[in-house]
Amino acid sequence: MKSMKILGCIGILAMAVSMTACSSSNDNVTDNGTNTGNGTGTTSYVWTTDGGLKACDHILFSKGKEDANGIEIGNGDQEFVFTGKQTLKKGTYVLNGWVYIGNGAQLTIEPGTIIKGDKDSKAALIVERGGKLIAKGTADAPIIFTSEQAKGSRKPGDWGGIILCGKAKNNQNEMQIEGGPRTKHGGNDDTDNSGILSYVRIEFAGYPFQKDKEINGLTFGSVGNGTQIDHVQVSYSNDDSFEWFGGNVNCKYLIAYKGWDDDFDTDNGFSGNVQFGLAIRDSKIADTSQSNGFESDNCADGSAVSPYTTATFSNITFVGPKLDNNFVNTPDYITGGSYNPNNGSALGKFQAAMHLRRNSRLNCINSIAIGWPIGLILDNQKGDTQGAATAGNMKLQNIYFAGMDAVGTDANKIYDDVLVTGYDADSKPIMDSSKKSFSSTFFLAQNGNKYFDKWTDLLLNNSYIPQAKSPVLSGASFTGIGSWFTQVSYLGALNAGDTWTSGWTNFDPQNTDY
């Protein structure tokens, strides 16, 4: 019997080798960098379990069945763990359910690939600690993650989004990522590498798994600085466009386009650098929690725990809702318009270009914000963000505000530029209307900061590209912030004649044929 089993195994192995050798040259997936599927699903799939979930070293399927030349990412289960190393060749795929790139796994995606997120399964791609996503597009062939819905009917929250988790530090030790997935993040390796996202678009993501537990367009959980992030556009996210929980990953050339909640949200000790960021709002879309350009916390309760949220953002341009001449900051106007997904995501009001709170020590330099109701909120309800500002533990310099209703206010949901002196027993702010807010006073006292009554005074084409005589073409300074940043003379995301947004971006994904 043993000899018969051995002969049988040898025969099966020979057949497998023969099939592999006959594989075609245009297959959708390369396995482990060497073997290629033949399009009939005969490549060997090795199955295991991971935390009670089905896990496999292959990622492509057809209607839930093994198919190395399939176009479905994930086996159709709500949660699936990928454990192999494969390259998706240029093509169009459908992402089903929550697909985890597990510890030791690596998914590489070729330039020009389109991946559509399945709506019914709230599809999301989640890189776990020790896993890697290599999505390296080009300016001419970006990698696109988008809605599976037909053009003209796409909405924020049509699918989940992209989550990267790593082993870098945060200020809560090991953390559970928000949005519903099982994944944890955090460690002590600030050089950790979760892969590459370069020339990537993420559109119509952010499905609300539960109330206030949406997956963002792009979420970073303790991602280390060995990870490469550049040229990423997140459009019509149903929550934040970008959110960082701890970690120290560095990012360049980010676009947050018409998201639901905040453009750039930083928490739990994020200490990386970000340069060249463009954030543009839809005047009909704001979250019930009050939408901001920056929202920044040290942690949820404002504790004085380290590492502090000390990220440095430079050359950011925030384009607010007030550039719409008909804009009114009321529920009657902020309806979501044709982009309202009616999926339980509540609408609210626009608030501030920068809302820094809960002991955050976020830094922002060489930047522009136009057309927001409020410029800056240094919020002291939890923690002592104002104390950090006074002590010089945050840098807000060389920033131009224009066309605001208030340069600054001192508390969440307070739109008047008056001093908040404390909070009463019901946690309501106590105000001294005879004095300007701490926030506006601090902002105007910092080096290089200016306020303009009208955003048109900045001479910006298309609301964000400076004209030849624009005052934002000079005034930048990089003194004392380290060598990582590209030193430029201008404020904001773009110089006159800049082309970094050309080719790979899309400002009308609703009407694009995919």
TrEMBL record:
The keyword Signal applies. Residues 1-23 form the signal peptide. The lineage of its organism: Bacteria, Pseudomonadati, Bacteroidota, Bacteroidia, Bacteroidales. Keywords: Signal. This is Lipoprotein.
